[in-house]
Amino acid sequence: MSEPTGSTPPAIVTSRTWRQGSWELGRYLQSGGYEGLRKALAMTPEAVQAEVVTSNLLGRGGAGFEAGRKWSMLAQKPVRYLVVNGDESEPATFKDHMLIEGDPHQLIEGTVIAAYATGASLAFIYIRGEFALGIERLEAALEDAYRHGAVGPNIFGSGFSLDVVVHPGAGAYICGEETALLESLEGKRGFPRIKPPYFPAAVGLYGAPTVVNNVETVSNLPWIVTHGGAAFAALGQGRSTGTRIFALSGHVNRPGNYEIEMVKTTFRDLIESPRLGGGVRDGRQVKAFIPGGVSAPWFGPEHLDLPLGQDEVGKAGSMLGSGAVTVMDDTTCAVRAAWRITKFFWRESCGQCTPCREGSGWLEKVMRRIELGQGREEDLDLLIDACDNISPGLRWPPAQTTICVLGPSIPSSITSAIHRFRDEFLLHVKEGGCPFPGALPR
Amino acid sequence: MTDARQPSSVENEEITIQLNGVEVGARPGELIIAAAERAGVYIPRFCYHPRMRSVGMCRMCLVEVKGPRGFALTPACFASVAPGMEILTDSPGVAKAQDGVLEFLLLNHPLDCPVCDKGGECPLQDQTMTYGPGESRFVEEKRHWPKPISISPLVDLDRERCIQCDRCTRFASEIAGDPLINFFGRGDHIEVATFPDRPFASYFSGNTVQICPVGALTASPYRFKARPWDLEQVESTCTTCGVGCRMAVQSSSGRLVRNLGIDVDSVNQGWLCDKGRFSFQAIESPSRRRGPLVRKGESFGEASWQEALRGVAGACSRAASSGGRIAVLGGAHLANEDAYAWARFAKGVLQTDWVDAQLADGLPAELIQGLPRATIDEACSAKAILLVGPDPREELPVLFLRLRSALTSGRTRLVELTPQSTSLSSLAASSLRYLPGEMQSVLRSLLGTRGTAGAELPSAKALEAARVTLGMAPGGAVAGGDGGEGVVVLFGRASLAEPADATAEVVGMIADSMPAARFLHLGRRGNLQGALDAGLAPGMLPGRVSLAAGRERYGSAWEGLPPEKGEDARGIVAAAASGRVDVLFLLGADPLSDFPDRALAKAALERARFVVSIETIRSPSSDHADVVLAASGWAERPGTTTNIEGRVSVVAQKVVPPGTARPDWMIAEELSALLDRPMGFQTLEDIRDEMRRLSPLHRGLGREAFAALAAGDGLVLPLAAAPVTLRPRLVDPMSVPGVGSVDSQGSPSLAGNARAGWDLDSGEEEDASQVKPDTALGDFSWTDRPVADSAPPRDGYSLRLVVSRRLYDAGMAVAESPALAGLAEAVSIRVHPSEIEGLGLHSGDPVAVVCPQGRVTMKALSDASVSKGVALVQFNAVGSSEERVLFGVGRPVHEIRLESR
């Protein structure tokens, strides 16, 4: 991994990931590793929590819920769990992947800090099963951390003890949904739990109060504790504090992970700055881009000057989500792009509730039909109405007829594509096929 | 059975909710779907079932509930009502969402309704007709699966029709405890499947077919047999075992085709076992008796009823005039009225007390009738249950479901005193195992009394856990007069290789040391309780009255009474075997199959001078009869039956008996007339009138009460003992389909096609509850405690035999029902793995079983749940009678040795 030249200082979570051997304990200790934990253990758990509340760290998993507030909602029962969600499986999202492989000790340190602050008696790191190297490095790092006294009984002599369990997933996107993840951890089928209860903080793993935090969220904690919540809050603007990793992909010259101070940069900077995305390939124009993972509605060129901030993007009708920005240039077929995303959701629907199970397959079939030239004009209304039956009103943030939010994620790309590129759909219908390069044989 | 989901607060307490702008009452904690239903608003649904945990999967029941951010779609099966909650079930938003869900469900659902068994009673079809759009917008290819696939010998699965509602899978894991079916795959390729090489072998698999909201699960006995609109149905009671499950009996073109469970809260809560559901097939068996037969030399010849009955009456007259002995065996499969008529015929007309409804495989009638009684509901809410008897799942399957539900929900706790593990062991607070012959010793050690020398006792920890659960003092010191308060004892014969006296002695010790405990008899025979209540036992008269106490009342009303108490089945068979019985009536009894000592039973049949078998299906025993009389069977005659609790409910007639077969009571009446002592019963009502008049137990069961019984949930006798409480039925309209289901599913109707419960406003219950007890004859109580012979000391080289029943055996209900016949296991001997390994054999190998009476070969199976020193043999298993060599009646223990051949 090369040095992330694009990161605007200070690099908080990616300060080590570009260095050789960054996953090793020795390297970690040389660069101030586990100092945050030592400092945290000298504080009261309440004080650590207060620092995180001050930092206003927003959850980096997708929903963007304040981490400190989430902790404060934890029911104060004797047995509490911490679960770190590392089941990063969304197409074009690859930030946690890097953090796990590149800086596993930072994740472990953050995990212990979070467990200390929330009073969790056991912590799990649920990691996507396909992260073979990540699992290997994380397990080795955990072993070293145990030996170093940073995990296990009486951590650094503080009297606080914690075991951390690394649990690989079995290849289901839905297990990134926190309640499906908990079911999976319990050894059950990865079906999201029906709400209420609304939050694992009340009823979580094995029925006990549980905090579920994303890998990137937790990886921020050593820095926040070391430098103080106020230092983190001083970065960024408004509700979006600190820095954030943006996974940039698609038709840019320099795809990759960039840690950027929030709000201070725009999408245009991210895509075009020579230090960051380096511009659209072959000097082409941005046709559309997805600002926060394939669940998010698409943006067009008119949104390029929006700042990379949680509320700013939300107000404009989409979301920063998982921080995955995907750029489509003007050679992209909107129908094919939306079909491809729909196909992903169809393949990954868990099958528990009807609208998503059946709707995803139907939408995929219709999208495929249009792309392959068998579409009808009335299919556009059909697509919109079927989407409406999964996410009534097709508004943002979405309503849903389903148990979890995978269902209402399906319509985002379809309705975005139809609204922005209706003519392209009609061209597919009229010409009986896809007019863009790389079309599948009919 | 998720009673836990029911509101725990007082039923009268109500809150107010706004349902479609109208204020209606609801119970705190009630689900919206249930509250709306009670208020007359039917919310469409597929996955919701009132007896199971809600999963909110189908999304059909989405309604709008007002929250802080306005109205939002919420599954009505999952959200509970709250005071003032505003709910819309008919808004445009709700209609759009429900239409959408219906369209999604139909995308991949084959529209093969014309050839689907569910067509005409299908909730998906009905709700589509009621709510759905007329045309599909789906022009793509539907999902395809190979179909149907057989997931068990009784259940076929059509995965294309499946709508993934999780009802069958939830039932299997939550209710039945047989998690053998589950979801496989994901997304729109999710499917219900079994695990490799593990069929859906559950005693309760038929329930999944009944609760399937589409035609995905079909029962192989019903496939393509009938169309719902051709079905006729009556509500009746199952008499396959003693639980008395209520069911809808359905026929098409005059033939029985299907039984469906009906939800009676206090009994079966909607469920049936597969034996009860499918054994109706036996009445169409090729071995079905269609008319009387009279022995002509070595074979039988068809005869007229007149000729056959005259022959029987003649034999009775000859016996009477020569001072000979007449005996009656059986009657536990008769309706109450038949049993009463036969009790009067035997004891009044023939004046014999050699009458026994059991076949030495049960417990003394005095014990069953003379202990303070408990109902199933009382057992399920008892502070603790003490099980001294057989595995309820094998003998009374739906009682097992009730107990399992009560135990898993924590409403009660269980202590077992059994010789082998049962299907409830994993849920028991303490399981006390005993080596056959040492039951009394183990009980004494529990009670802390002496007399346990030499016995192998459970661990002190298990004993103490049992004492704590049963509310006993540490060490087992017997409490005072309130000992056993809140404890319900389930009792029966755990092993036929132990004498009845051993169980009786133990039950007696429990009754003496826990005076406040109450008892529920695990009697497996269909109407054993009814037969005993009618007096079909030595020393007993109808109404739980002893021969001595009732002599005056019955002696003057009847033709007379026997001079003294007679012999029970064991005495009758022994007497017959030594040539001391002149006429032996087999009242639906098959001693060759059911009497534990087959050799003795065979001798009895051969040496009794005249044997009359009154039966519905040819039994092995009737090959030895002189006259066979064809009786009408279940569903071929009306009547009432009494379950193990003493609950009387109606058994309805649905089809006509074949040939000239007739009800048992008519046979008794005609024989009495031929003997010039007519009882005078012309109709069933005549018998009921007499029962009501003479029997203290049946007092108050008037014509009106009987009429109400037909539609109700039965009445526990005696009526005067407790106020009659009637509960409205909790009905899943989708599980009780049948004729006209379209009317019941798209509308607020609660009861489906099954008849509604007792009319609460009719005033009937007041009549019943105002019955004054008839105390003239005194209360019958069991005082004569038997003491069993003590077992010989243990022999370290021998195994002690436990002989128990399984649900599927060689009995006629299974053997003559094609759907069930293949499910009965062949004879085998089960022992702890170490016993087989010690012989250098493997599980499944044939082994020689050696006992003092001889040596037989059978398959040996290793089973880690069997205690060391014990060998398990199934009673009346298929394919062999050899195991009968191993044991008889009367000996305290039966010891065997295994040898490699």
* Chain pair sharing the greatest interface: A-B, 35 and 37 residues
What is the 3D form of chain B? globular
Fraction of residues in β-strands of chain B: 15-25%
Report low-confidence residues of chain A grouped into runs of 5 or more.
Answer: 1-7
Proportion of residues in β-strands of chain A: 5-15%
User: Can you name the CATH architecture of the largest domain in chain B?
Assistant: 3-Layer(aba) Sandwich
- What is the 3D form of chain A? globular
Q: Helical content of chain A, roughly?
A: 40-55%
Topology, number of strands of chain A: 10
Strand sequence of the main sheet of chain A, in spatial order? 3-2-1-4
Q: In angstroms, what separates the terminal alpha carbons of chain B?
A: 49 Å
| CATH architecture call of the domain at 25-232 in chain A | 3-Layer(aba) Sandwich
Structural class of chain A: alpha/beta
How would you summarize this macromolecular structure in one to three sentences?
The complex is a heterodimer of chains A (about 450) and B (about 900). Chain A is of the alpha/beta class and about 450 residues long.
